[in-house]
Structures are given as C-alpha cells and as structure tokens.
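Hi L.,

As promised, TonB-dependent receptor:
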Amino acid sequence: MKTPALASLLLLCPALVLAQQEVDRAQPATPMPGNQQLERVSVTRQQTETDLRRREPVAKQLYGRDELDKYGDSQLSDVLKRLPGINVSGGQLRMRGLGGAYTQILVNGEPAPPGFSLDNLNPAQVERLEVTKAPTADQSAQAIAGTLNIILKDAPRVVQKDMRLGLAYASEKPVINAGFTYGDRVVGGLGFVLPISFYQWNNVNETDSERVRDSGHTHLKSEGRDRGFGRGFNMSPRLNWKLNDDESLTLQGFFVQNRFRNEGWNNTEVLASDASSVVPPSLRDTSRNRGTFSAQRLNVQYNNRFDEDRRIELRAGVGSGGADFNSDFYGRNTDGTPAIDRFTSGHNRNRNATLSGKYSQYAGESHTITTGGELERRTRDETRGTQQLDYSQSNPKLEDLLPGVEGQPFNATITRSAIYVQDEWEINNQWSAYAGVRHEQIKTASNGDGSNFDSTSKVTTPLLHVNYKPDPKGRDLIRASLTRSYKAADVQQLIARPTVNTDYDVRGPNARVNTVLGPDRVGNPQLKPELATGLDVAWETYLPAGGLFSVGVFQRRITDLIRTDQPRLMAVPWADTQRYVITQVNLSKATTQGLELEVKGRAGELFPSLFDVATALNLRASLNVYRSKVADIPGPDNRLEGQQPWQLNFGADYRLKSLPINMGFSAQIAPEFDVQQSLIQSQTSLAARSLDAFAAMQLSKEDSVRVSVNGLFQPKQGTRVVIANSPDYNLSERQPVPWWAVNWEHKF
C-alpha cells in the first residue's frame, strides 16, 4: 500500500469510529492451532458529552475536559462566555440575558461559598460543567434563569500527573499562572486527586464619562485610568474511598486565597456651570484599594447501595471565609490644594454548615422515587467605615462620613431548609417523565445599627419534565418542562443602612442636595421573593457522528418582581439637607420569553455537499433571541434589567493533517439596546462583540504548547442613563483590552 493511501486510511479510522454508536466484531468460530478459538471482541465508542446529554432525564447541557482545555483559559469565566445562552458581564454569570441574581451557581451540587467568583477557579480544577435551564427537585429552585453546577475533579482510575505553566499579557506587564495535578489510586479502593493553581492578574481600564446634571446647569467631563492587579492561590483536593462494592466515602476540599490591589486616577473638568448650581472646581483624584479574600470548604459524602432497588446519599459540610480591605481617595483642585481626603476600611467573615440526605428506591419496573432534605446555616459578620477630612474647617480633622453608622458592626444569620420528593417514570419506550415538588424556607435575621430585621420566605415549587421520542429507535427527542422557581432577596438588598453618593457632601456648610442621577441607596427589609412560573419546550436531534441540532422556546412569568424604584427626594437622618434616595421594591409582574437555537458537529456531517466526511473541522453556532416586559413600567423598552434582545455565538475548530496542530476561534456578538428602568429613567447599553482564538501544538507525547487570545475587536463598552423631560444624562465608557497568553503543559 502506498504511503499517502496508508496515511489517508489512518486519518479516516478515527472518524469512522466516532460515527458509530457501537461496533461489535465477532470472529467466526474457526478452530485455531492447539484447539484455541478467538473470543468474541466488543469495541464500544467512548460516550461523548452529546451522548450523556441525550440520556439525561431533564434538559441539561454538559461540557467536559475538551471544552475546558480548548483555549487554555486560566479563568473559568472565559470558558463560560463561549457557551450557548451564557454571557459574563462585570464578573457576573448571566443566563438567558438575565442578571446574575437570577442564575444559581453550585459547586458539586451545593451553593457556592459567599464571595465566590468564577475568576477564583482555574478550569484545570474542574471535571465538567452542567448547565440546566429548568430546576429539579433535588437542587434549590433559586434558578429563574437556570443553574450552573461546577463539578470539581474526581480521583482518576489511573495515575495522573500533569503540570501547566502560562504567561499572559494584556497591559503594562505580563502575569504568570501555574497549575499542578496529581491523582492516583493508592491501595484497594482508595484514590485521591490534588489540583493546585497559582494565578496573577493585571487589568487596566481607561474610562471616559460625561455628565449633565442640575437640570442642565452643570456639564462635567471626566477621563480616568484604573489598574487592578493581584495574585491568588487555590486547590481542591478530593479523596475517594470505596469501602466495598456498595459503599463509598468521599472527602472534597476547596480552598482559595487572593490578594488584590487597585490604583487609579480620574480628571474631572467643569465644562459649564452657572450661579444656580454649587459645583466644585475641576479636580484630579487618585484612589488606592487593597485587600485579601479567602474561602475554605470541606465536604464529606457517604453513599450506600443496599441492593439493586435502594440507595442512600448523606452529605455534610463546613466552610468559612472573608475579606479585608482598605481604600484611600484623594482629590486635589487644579491649583494643587486639597479638596477631598477619604479613607474606607472594612472586613467581613462568613461561616456556614450544611447537612443533607436523599433516599432513592425503585418502585415497580418503571418508577424511581427519591426523597430528601437539606439544612444550611450561614452567618456573616461585617464592619465597614468611611472617614474623611473636613476642609471646610480652619483646622481639618478626620470625621465619620455618617456619624452613628460608620464603623458599627453588622451581622446576619441565614437559615435555609428544604424537603423534596421526585419520581422518575419510564412510561414506555417513547415517553418518560420527571415529576417532583420541593418546599424551601429561608429565614434571615440581622442585627446592627439601623439594620435590625427578621425576614422569612417560604416557597413551594412543583416541577414536571416530560421527554418524548417520536421514533423509539430514532435520534429525535422532544423535551417539555413546567416548573416553578424563585429568587430571594439577598442580605444587602434587605439591610436598611444607607450607602451615600459621596459626590455630594452630606454634612457641614458644603452639604448639598444630590441629583436624580446621583442618588443615595438604602435597603428594604420588606422585600418578598420573586416567583416565576416557567414553560420550556425543545426539540433535539442527535446526528450519527456526534453532532447536535436543537431549537427551543421558553417563557417565565414573574410575580413580585424586585426592581429599583425611581429616586425620591426626602429628608434623611444621615444628611443636613434633603437627598434623592433609591430603594428596591416589589412590582406586580413581568414576563420574559425567548427562542434558543444551537447546532454543532463535524463539518462533513452538517454540510455533506461541501465537506468530505474525513475533514477534521468542527463547527458550532447558537442564536438566542429574548423578549421581556415589566408590567408597572411603560414601554416600549420596559424589558428586564440587562437583558439584550439577542446574542449570537459561533466558532470552529480545525486539526491540520500535516502537523499535530489544532486551531480554532469563537465569536460573541450582542447589539446595543435600551432599558426603561423606571417611569423617568432609561439606560442604553452599548453593543458588545468579542473574538477568542487559539492554536495548540503537540510537541511530544508528554508536552503541548497553546497560544491564545481573548477579547479581540471589542468596541467601547458602557452605558448611557437619561432622565425623561430633562437634559440630564450620564454617559460612561471604557475600552476593553485583549488578553494574549501562551501555555505549556507537561504530562508525567
């Protein structure tokens, strides 16, 4: 056989294997020398993420190591922004265009620790990601938009030792990241894995803003620069102990610690003002912020399969963490004289303990009944204070910004309990159903100056998921879900302590009334949880070679929507003048609906007339279209906060034939859109687009190198807030900077 033909055959073989669901090769029973016969050999294709997704009893998207490793990301948020129906804004995960509070984040099936950030977790520490758009009974129903469950690395079946070193650059100077993973089966049923990561960051934002206030009497323009940098360390050790064939014990730890700093400056120029407005002269201010954050968690899980029909799972966990910070703000007039010297410090500590259990039993040949309960208790202790020098006095001295409030301790205790029952029913070879009900209660008690309150919310959430196969042997699947979900107000929304806008003095001879665009904020302890009734319907078709096409629609009807009320001018105890104040209130209702399209697969399977079946090109694309309406706010743009009208993701991966090189790209696009925030205030969000790309080369069996860039071709991002029937507005823009990185991986 000629060499090119042999090479073509070798390249074609993997594609042929991927295209088969299962290949059984049976040799004829021909006698062999020595009366030996060849045994029947079964070769089974390893299940892909698409296979696992197809077999899930509810609609769930699964992403494993291939997706996590593809771009060599050092932050999990960079992986998530490329997934269908997900975007990351300001460090917050948003599903279906809804704000971060609508999306539930779990780590190994349990709520993420307080203060947890997606940027604290290296993708190398993650086994897989599970994205669920409709809630299930065995997980909290605080998931109106959906749930992200981060499954940390499990102990491997064979020894695993790999090391990663990376160098990245965005601005000023490069930063490094490193990771090491060691896993093995020690003796018998005892196995462990120890992933460790070290990372740095260095981000620079250049901002421009323009403000017209005081009913058009004052025009301000600012330009500034902010640099955030720091370093962090995390690890997630896991120990698995198989006690016997039916019992296992698992210990999972998660530890993260980082140090952060921010330094910046801002120049504000007064372009226009008149005698009717009291405006400080043009000034230059500088700021510094530094602090630490840490979180620790340890969980133990016990599983026992009593027999073929019954099993039990018990979990317990403890965690702690907190943050400390200090910030300084200095403002100087154009002649160099001091205008503002302000100092803020604070610290908080969080502790939590969890206990849960569930019991499952087969009922007949088609039902699996599961019942369980959960109990969680969290405490938070916080102290924060701001002081400033009062230059209105001949002898300036340091004074509390809000006397009687600043520096006063605050604490809160949150107790969450839940019980649930569910039934997974295999009706026949075409129909299956998942039905359940969950009752959850959250009780919050707070103590502190101006923030004493007790709040209790109780929510019962019925759930129904149905799957239908038009052809029992076919690859088409129709899914439908009718569910109840909710969003409870967090502690910061409930606390009645004020947060003041420091652009306007609150005490002394320079005390001024602030503006509608610069209000103070105060919490509302009377907030009730938002309730959402949801309908999801999707058609999925799974292609023979592992491709997928899906089209779905959804609707959520939300009652008691939490929304920021319009600013109100009132007398307040923390200021010598009246102040504009905003708080959050429960409106009547809102609705949101959308269309979700997704396609992915090998180019030769998706477009057989354009590509050969052996072409090593994978394509993927998703289009999400969203609409929403808030009943108590006039249109036409009375949509839910931050929900873009549509989002388009598309990308491709290609493997070269002549060299061991993989390359690919992923693009994300969203349009500019308006949101009517209240009766008098609206906000415009600027268009967003971004391109990520990578190229990876396998140097040897043990070594590989990957070069990548995140965030190419991004336009200016920002918002413009305007007031109806007024010339006042506030425009804020920043120019994102792309990240360039090179990563080397060595497998021992």
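Residues 1-45 have pLDDT under 50 and may be disordered.

Thanks again for sending the construct details.

K.
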